[in-house]
Amino acid sequence: MRLVLDDYGSYLGVEGLSFVVKKGKTESLRRIPFYGVDEIAISSGGAVSTKALAWASIYGTKVLVTSHSGRPLGVYLPLDHDMHVETRVKQYQAYNNEKGIGIAKAILKAKIMTQASLLDRYDVGFDGQPYLRKIERMKMQAGDKARTALFSIEGEFSQRYIKQIVKLFPKSLQTDVRESRGATSALNNIFNLSYEVLRWEVYKSILGSHLDPYLGYLHSIEHSKPSLVCDVQEPYRAWIDGFLVEYCRTVSEKDLQVRFDGPKPRIFLKHPASSRLIAKLNEYLNSKVKKQRTHKYGSRSRLKTIIQEDTERLAGYIRGKLPTWEPTVMPM
Fold first, then answer.
1. Residue 13 β-bridge partners
2. Model confidence over 204-249: pLDDT tens digits?
3. What is the pLDDT of residues 249-260, one digit of tens each?
4. In what order do the strands lie in the sheet with 72-76?
5. Of 234, 249, 311, which Cα lies nearest the Cα of 280?
6. Helices 303-319 and 85-95: crossing angle, nearest 10°?
7. In the chain, which residues fall in CATH 3.100.10.20?
8. In whole angstroms, what is the distance from residue 111 CA to residue 279 CA?
């Protein structure tokens, strides 16, 4: 389970063989055995004892530090987390061979298929097949030349997709340009906040699979850029987009605020609205869909579990334990 401490003044400690959550000096509000917690999220304003951190390390529990609204800021991991050297060595080797380009092609194909499927769901005329054919026609060659060609296809597809997807949002939120850093429009900042939630789920899955988040196969390698996280999240962006199309129908002007922290005014969700969005997104990623679990635990999987298992299989493919790998493509 995911243990969340998001109240100002909340405290995580230890009693016996359990984590305990307290508020100030009050008695324990919650008590959960160590083995029953796989992730702890503590927002700014909360506190955690070093004993709780020590037991989290022993049980391999990730501890996430977030802003008060729920934005991921940092993660605490046990010392032995990086002992899986073989996985990372094979990951680095794949960057310069055909396996790495094959992974990049699989990621881009899955992204195009899921996003085209989302537009089909809303009866928007959009054909992703020309882009898929371009990917198929590419020669299986290693190196930056192939990556550049793939990224060119991705850029061309994304420009057309964005023009269509924004039309599904209320007119008061629609925008002509997709911006990430320094975005001014409300819709772009809603997208950016939502993708941060997705990014954390992907980041967790990559850490859990003992891969290097900063060495990817489709996105460029740059200082401070987690390119593998950027890669792996691409097929799941359509999940977030589809969620937002429905969710934003409830967003009104009273949920928005203007900030003047740059050359242009920027529009964001107000703090309570941001917190609600993040909570609903986490609830959505925890929901189940019809998808067989990799380990045969059932015919239904949580969306976050699909991300985890896709990444585990990616690590297995990189190590040479699996003959092929493709991300999950679900009809939207």
1. 20
2. 899 889 999 999 999 888 877 899 999 999 999 999 999 999 999 9
3. 999 999 999 998
4. 2-5, 39-43, 62-66, 72-76
5. 249
6. 80
7. 2-81
8. 25
Give dist(CA 228, CA 199) in Å, integer: 11
Domain with CATH 1.20.120.920 in the chain: 84-319
Architecture of the structural domain at 84-319: Up-down Bundle (1.20)
Secondary structure (H, E, C), the chain: CEEEECCCCEEEEEECCEEEEEECCCCCCEEEEHHHCCEEEEEECEEECHHHHHHHHHCCCEEEEECCCCCEEEEECCHHHHHCHHHHHHHHHHHCCHHHHHHHHHHHHHHHHHHHHHHHHCCCCCCCHHHHHHHHHCCCCCCHHHHHHHHHHHHHHHHHHHHHHHHHCCCCCCCCCCCCCCCCCHHHHHHHHHHHHHHHHHHHHHHHCCCCCCCCCCCCCCCCCCHHHHHHHHHHHHHHHHHHHHHHHHCCHHHEEEECCCCCCEEEECHHHHHHHHHHHHHHHCCEEECCCCCCCCCEEEHHHHHHHHHHHHHHHHHCCCCCCCCCCCCC
Cβ proximity of 187 and 167 under 8 Å: no
Enter the tokens of residue 250: 């409830």
Q: What is the pTM of this model?
A: 0.86
Q: Identify which of 151, 142, 149 has the alpha carbon closest to the alpha carbon of residue 100.
A: 142
d(CA 139, CA 206): 28
- 2-81: CATH topology is Ribosomal Protein L15; Chain: K; domain 2 (3.100.10)
Which pair of tokens denotes residue 119?
Answer: 């537009």
What are the pLDDT digits (tens) for 117-142? 999 999 987 889 999 999 998 876 66
Question: What mean pLDDT do residues 141-159 have?
Answer: 87
